[in-house]
Amino acid sequence: MASDLPQGDDRIAKIASSIRVIPNFPKPGVMFQDITTLLLDPRAFRDTIDLFVERYKGQDISVVAGIEARGFIFGPPVALAIGAKFVPMRKPNKLPGEVISEEYTLEYGADVMEMHVGAVQAGERAIIMDDLIATGGTLCAAIKLLERVGVHVVECACVIELPELKGRDRLGDRPLDRTSCLEGIPGTAIEGFEPYVDGGRKRGPGAIDEVWCSTSPVSLESGQGDQGSALGAFGF
Amino acid sequence: MFSQSFLCSDFSSLSKPPRFFSDSSSSAITTLSSTHFPPLSFRSSFASPRIKQLEGQRETRKNFPSFLCFSVDSTMSAWDGEDPRVRDIKTKIRVIPNFPKPGIMFQDITTLLLDPKAFKDTIDLFVERYKNRNISVVASIEARGFIFGPPIALAIGAKFVPLRKPRKLPGEVISEEYVLEYGKDCLEMHVGAVETGERALVVDDLVATGGTLSAAMNLLERAGAEVVECACVIELPDLKGRERLKGKPLFVLVESH
Fold first, then answer.
1. Longest Cα–Cα distance in chain B
2. Which residue positions does the secretion signal occupy (chain B) (predicted)?
3. A212 at the B interface (CB within 8 A)?
4. Which residue from B minimizes the CA distance to A37?
5. Average pLDDT, chain A
6. What is the rounded average pLDDT of the residues A82-111?
7. Alpha-carbon dihedral of residues A37, A43, A44, A49, nearest 10 degrees?
8. Are residues B108 and B35 both part of a single domain?
C-alpha cells in the first residue's frame, strides 16, 4: 500500500507537482501534461526512475520497450538499472533494419508503430514505458507488437495517467502502473495534483486492479547506493 | 576491403564469414517467422559491394539477439588500443547500408541497446568523463539523443533538456534554424529550461555534418548557457562535423569511416 511507503507518498507528490500543464495544446480543449519540467528537477527525475526500478528489479524482466519519443526518456534509465535491454518502438520509416508493424487507430485516422525484427525473443518478460497513457491506443499497439513475437508483457508503466480517457480499459487484463495520477477534469487548468492514495484502489468500477501498492514495502537497502537511490546500486 | 570482421561473441568457431539478412534460409529470419507474423517489411537492400554480408547466427544465450552481426571498416582498428569497453561497444553497432537512401551507411545503435552491459558501458564512459565537472544541464536532440542523454544527466545530477523538432514542445520555445543537404530544419528548446551561466553538455547518438549539434549549441548559448562539450557515441569524421562546432570540443566513443 502506498501508506506502507512513507517515502513513496512524498516522492509522488513532488513528482506530480513538478509536472506542468499547458492548456489548449496541441489543440483547444486539451490540457497537455508537460513532463519536461519534471526533467529539469534532477531529484524528481531520479525519484521517478527509482519508483519504477524499485518495482521491477528482481522481477526477471529482460526487456524494457519505450515508445517514441518521450518513452525514450524514461525507458532507458529503467532498463539500465534493472539490467534489461531497451527496445525502441517507433513511428514508420525511422528504424533502419527489418521491422514488424502494428497499425492503431487515432481519434481521426490511424498510425503505425514499428519494432525491429530480432530485438526480442519469444518467452522474454517485458514492460512497456511511456510518459503518459491517455486512450491507451499506443500502448495497445506496443503490447500487440511484443506479443506477436511471443514476449510476455508483464506490465505497462507510465508516469501519468488520464483516467477519464479510460486507457486502462483498452489494455484488457494487462496491469498498468503509474507513479502519479492526475484527476483532471477536462477543460480545467489544474493548479495542484492530487496523487492517488491507497494504490488507486478507489478507482471506478471496471478499472483494472492495480498492482502498484500491493507488494510489500520495497526494501531500499538493496537498492541504496551512495546516492541513496535505487539507481545508485547500479553505479549511477 | 575489410581486414577484419568485428563480430558479436562466439563466432570464432565459424568456418566461413557470416552473412547478414540474406535469403529466407537465414536462421535469423526463420527463427522469428511464425504463423503469427504478417509479411515483414524488408527495406534494406544489400547491393553495395563494400559490405560483406553477415548472417544472423542463432544464439543460444537467452538475452542475446540472434541477428546481431556486421562488419566494420578496417580503419576502425586504429581504436584497438582503446578501453576494451569501447571495442565491445563498436561491435554492437549495426551498419545498415542504403538507409534512409542509397549510398548511406546507417549506424544503427538499437543493437547496442539490446546488450545491457554494452549500453551501460556506453553511459559509464560519458559519466566518468563528465561527473565532477559542474555540469548542470544535459541537452539531447530528438529522438535518439533522448536515449543517451537522460541516463547521463541522472548519473551526474544534471537536469535534462530535450531539444525537439518544431511544434512538439508544448510551452513557449526558442527556435534555431539550420541547413540540411536539401532545405532547412528547425530545432526548439523551452524558454526557461536553462539559466544564464549554467554549464551544459550536448549529447546525441551520432555526429555527421554537425548541423544539428551546431543548432543545439546555438540554442543553449542564446539562453545564456555555456556549452562545455558535445558528446556523441559515433562520429563520421569524413563529414567533418567537428569543424562546425565553433571550436567547442567534441568527444566521441567510436569513429566510423
1. 60
2. none
3. no
4. B193
5. 77
6. 94
7. 120
8. yes
Write down which residue in B68, B84, B113 finishes a domain: B113
pLDDT tens-digit readout, B108-160: 999 999 999 999 999 999 999 999 999 999 999 999 999 999 999 999 999 99
From the candidates A43, A55, A70, A178, which is the catalytic residue?
A: A70
Condensed to tens digits (0 to 9), the pLDDT of residues A114-130 reads: 999 999 999 999 999 99
Q: Does the residue B126 lie in any domain?
A: no
Q: Look at residue B108 and tell me if it is in a domain.
A: yes
For residue B65, the model assigns a pLDDT of 46
In the structure grid, which three cell numbers stand for residue A146, read together? Answer: 511484443
Question: Same structural domain for residues B154 and B184?
Answer: yes
Residues in chain B within 8 Å Cβ distance of A90? 143
Best to test chain B binding among A36, A67, A68, A226 (most B CBs inside 10 Å): A36
Exactly one of B43, B167, B172, B181 is catalytic; name it: B181
Contact residues, chain B, for A68 at CB < 8 Å:
143
Residues B166 and B243 in one domain: yes
In this predicted complex, what is the ipTM? 0.77
Name the stretches of chain B with pLDDT < 70.
1-81
The total number of structural domains that make up chain B: 2
Shared domain check, B140 and B109: no
Instruction: Mark yes or no for CB contact B56/A76 under 8 Å.
Output: no
- Nearest neighbour of B67 by CB, restricted to A36, A77, A118: A118
How close does chain B come to A220, measured CA to CA in Å?
18
Task: Kindly report the pTM of this predicted structure.
Answer: 0.75
Position B191 scores a pLDDT of: 98
Name the domain boundary from B80, B113, B146: B113
**Are B250 and B140 found together in one domain?**
yes
Q: Does A76 touch chain B (CB under 8 A)?
A: yes
Q: Which three cell numbers stand for residue A158?
A: 507510465
Contact with chain B for residue A236, Cβ under 8 A: yes
Residue B98 domain flag: yes
B195 and B106 in a common domain: no
Counting residues of chain A whose pLDDT is more than 70, the rounded percentage is 71
Q: Which domain holds residue B210?
A: 132-255
**Residues B240, B173 share a domain:** yes
Within-domain flag for B118? no
Q: Are residues B197 and B164 in the same domain?
A: yes
Residue % of chain A over a pLDDT of 90: 61
| B62–A62 C-beta distance less than 8 A | yes
Q: How confident is the model at residue A9 (pLDDT cuts 50, 70, 90)?
A: low
CA distance B208 to chain A (A): 17
CATH at residue B222: 3.40.50.2020
